[in-house]
Amino acid sequence: MKIISTSHPNQSAPPPRKKLIEVALPLDAINKASAREKSIRHGHPSTLHLWWARRPLAAARAVIFSQMVDDPSAYVDVLRADPKLRRKAEAVLKARLKLWQEARTLAEKAKEAGLPVPEPGPAPTLDDMLADQERQRLFRIIEDLVLWENTTNEKVLQAARDEIWQSWRRTCAENAGHPRAKELFDRHKLPAFHDPFAGGGALPLEAQRLGLESYASDLNPVAVLINKAMIEIPPKFAGRPPVNPESRGKLDHSRSWLGAQGLAEDVRYYGQWMRDEAEKADRIPLPENRDHGGNGERETGSETVRGAKTHGDRLALGAHGEEPESGLRARGRTTRLQFHTFHQGRPRGLHRAGD
Length: 355
Ligand SMILES: C[S@@+](CC[C@H](N)C(=O)[O-])C[C@H]1O[C@@H](n2cnc3c(N)ncnc32)[C@H](O)[C@@H]1O
Description:
Layout: H1 20-23, H2 27-37, H3 57-68, H4 76-80, H5 83-112, H6 126-145, H7 154-174, H8 181-184, E1 193-195, H9 202-209, E2 214-218, H10 221-236, H11 245-249, H12 261-282, H13 301-320, H14 323-331, E3 337-343, E4 346-352
Parallel strand pairs: 1-2, 2-3
Antiparallel strand pairs: 3-4
Helix pairs in contact: 2-3, 3-9, 5-6, 6-7, 9-14, 10-14, 12-13
This protein binds S-adenosylmethionine.
Residues 53, 55, 195, 197-200, 202-203, 218-220, 223 line the site of S-adenosylmethionine.
């Protein structure tokens, strides 16, 4: 009897390649960079608006990258065909085999003496060495990628994007026989990214930075606003000069405005304007005994304005750093955001922001 599996439309498809994240990660480097980010107070999305469950950008960047790239065990045949890599791997294998042989002899002797010693496992192979070597190369890309200083480093980002593309092309070639290959495995178009619970937007921002078309949605309108400010609005102004009167007055037409630099100038200008206006308002005395919510807490004019000042500062800071610019220069794609509106606990509809 012939048994045919119907679980996959493409009967001849090989088993999926393992992605790097399924095999190994340079966790120490990712953890260190993620922890360090907590103390960065300039140009980080955390300065745009408070978000309680904010995830580190370093971790988001590393996780997306290692989900997109193949583990080297999936293309060891290619590595084996490279004489330079092969020679290096053969040298390492020789040393490893010697160690393995010693461990095995020890284990055998211990066994004869009735001592419980673990087996050294299977003998290392040339393919193992080649894959290990290649994994180390990918780890170095991640170690560079997670550093905050490299957030806008085009060379580092491009190296990561190139790896993603290479893995994607391998996947496309492997799935060329898939009935929907044209639509699902287009070697000229990376798959899009969607975080349906985007929160502070670390994942969609980093996906966009790595060259993926990025989508975000969230139930919470504050999260939607943060995502809009980070990944939807800046690309719309990519490469454009500022429009505020001060910058326009001294505009140097020979200068090019990379990414969201022009937009950042405007946010800085209007952030300052808001701050100045708030300061002016500070001088206008508000009624002394304003009692909010009947809880006995008084809100004075200055307290109200301080809130506004802080917000103005945050806007200015958020736009001042390289953060939005980096996201843009990379690809200049627009991220569409979705938000749900709820009415009496039931969803009223799903909208695309800007529709
Ligand atoms: C843990 S946070 C998001 C973390 C985010 N993915 C990250 O990596 O930083 C979970 C988010 O899911 C959102 N959420 C919860 N239930 C949801 C729902 N039914 N639809 C859309 N968003 C929802 C919350 O508003 C919150 O922002």
